[in-house]
Structures are given as C-alpha cells and as structure tokens.
Amino acid sequence: MKERTGDPWMPADQYGRGLPAFTVNLLVRDAPRAVGFQTEVLAANVHYSDPRGLGAELRVFGVDPDAVERRARTRGFSVIQPATTKAHGWREVMVEDPDGYLWAVGVPTPPKPGS
After folding, report:
1. For labelling alongside 61, which of 37, 70, 72, 102 has CA 20 to 30 A away?
2. 30 lies in a domain?
3. CB 41, CB 80: distance < 8 Å
4. Percent of the chain beyond pLDDT 90?
5. Which letter does DSSP use for residue 75 in this model?
6. Which among 80, 84, 102 is positioned nearest to 92, based on CA atoms?
C-alpha cells in the first residue's frame, strides 16, 4: 500500500526507465530504519523510499514479460500479475518462484511524447 502523499519526486516513467537491469525492492516494516541501515552500514545508494509492508520484490529488466508469463503458466508457476504496460515506463509481469519470492520482469515501453 502506498503511503506517500503529494506529487512524486520524478515522473514514474522517467524513474522506471532509469533503473538498472536488476534491482531489489525491499518491503520493510520501518522504512527510515531500513534506509538508515542500508546507507550507513552497507553504503548503499537508495533511489527511492516509501513506507510499505513486508517482503521482497526482485526486478529484472530487459526480459520479455509476455514470454516469461507464458513459460510460468506452462510450467504451473503462479502469475501474480499478468504482463501489463505500467505508468512507470515498463511492460512487466509478476511471477512467484517456488520459494515465494515475487519477480517483476519487464522491458521499457517507448517514451511518451515530450518525455
């Protein structure tokens, strides 16, 4: 659940297209505490922080989401969200692996005119 209010710090599609090929989206209990650990202890660069729930979402970019959805369905894996074109500038699918991790796999969509 998104708890942030107000305007985003950058357009969603600009943010989505600027992500590296593999990212981890950690869904934590206490975002400020987690960000403190990640930046102060791990010397991580945090691109965005928003209060959220629990879990981890692994993101892989540059892989055809429609093909991933077909392969997951053929092999009996859970498709959490079918391949969809999102406002953040990606076409992505969300699939669950055998250990319960959520994988968001996608490719960039063409930029909006004027972006």
Report:
1. 37
2. no
3. no
4. 30
5. T
6. 84
pTM of this structure: 0.63
CATH number of the domain enclosing 89: 3.30.720.110
- For the CA atoms of 11, 13, 15, 17, what is the dihedral angle to 10 degrees? -150
User: Could you say which DSSP state residue 60 is in?
Assistant: E
> Per the structure, how many domains does the chain have?
1
Label residue 1 by pLDDT band (50, 70, 90): very low
Q: Which domain holds residue 67?
A: 12-25+57-108
Assess if residue 21 is contained within a domain: yes
Rounded distance between C-alpha atoms, residue 28 and residue 11, angstroms: 24
**Could you read off the pLDDT of 72-91 as tens digits, one per residue?**
999 999 999 999 999 888 89
Pairing of strands 55-61, 102-108: parallel
